[in-house]
Amino acid sequence: MADAAETEPNPARAHHDLGGIAKYMCEAVDTEPHELTEFDREVDALRQLLGMKRVMSVDELRRGIEAIQEAEYHARSYYQRWIRSIADNLLRKGVITTAELEAALANSRMCP
Amino acid sequence: MSTLAPGQIVRVRDDWPEARGPVHIRTPHYLRGRIGTIRKILGRFANPEDLAFARPAPSLTLYHVAFDPASLWGDAKAGDEILVELYESWLEEA
After folding, report:
1. What do you get for the CA distance between the two ends of chain B, in Å?
2. A33 touches chain B (CB under 8 A)
3. A13 touches chain B (CB under 8 A)
């Protein structure tokens, strides 16, 4: 399998599937711990509640994160991707409506 | 598929479902079509590929599979090992 390095990038690789890509031969991976913001904690708590109430599984959260378009995916923080996925999941399931989401966002502390 | 045993040589299916439509896959791209060794049976778990879409999810056997990094990347150091959790649906006997 000596051709492994030459076959990068694989056109079929999903943009979130970042493990083992050639880019990280030149670019250090950030392994420093990150301070959690209030926003991060709030999103995490919301995710836990939705899991406990069996409204949305972790797997559905992950699918929703992976569905974020590439440019937005890389522009968003870890928990911004989570809230985007949570919102998409709740809209798709009909738990909330677009109008309710927009009304909540208009007054929200959740947007950093 | 019958349960694979530790030590058995397997090949990860060279399949790219992400190219065919919305999916959730827990098998890294860099392992598709590669040869590894079963290290350990981790148990049976509901298939995350179905859970991700809130579909009924049959349970599958999850394995620890070891790979020689030199078989994956040209600049790998000898003696290292990549250990990855893979579901039975992604493995074929090699």
Report:
1. 13
2. no
3. yes
Helices (H) and strands (E) in chain A, counts: 5, 0
Give a yes or no: residue A21 inside a domain.
no
pLDDT digits (tens, 9 = 90+) for A76-99: 999 999 999 999 999 999 999 999
Is A93 inside a domain boundary?
A: yes
Look up residue B11 and give its two tokens. Answer: 């090949």
- For the domain made up of B9-93, the CATH class stated in words is mainly beta
Amino acid, res. A79: Y
Q: What is the 3-state secondary structure (H, E, C) of A56-80?
A: CCHHHHHHHHHCCCHHHHHHCCHHH
The pTM assigned to this predicted structure is 0.87
Query: Cβ contact (<8 Å) for A63 and B52?
Result: yes
Place of tokens 């791209």: B29
Q: Which residues of A touch B54 (CB under 8 A)?
A: 57, 60
ipTM topping 0.85:
yes
CATH of the domain at A38: 1.10.472.20
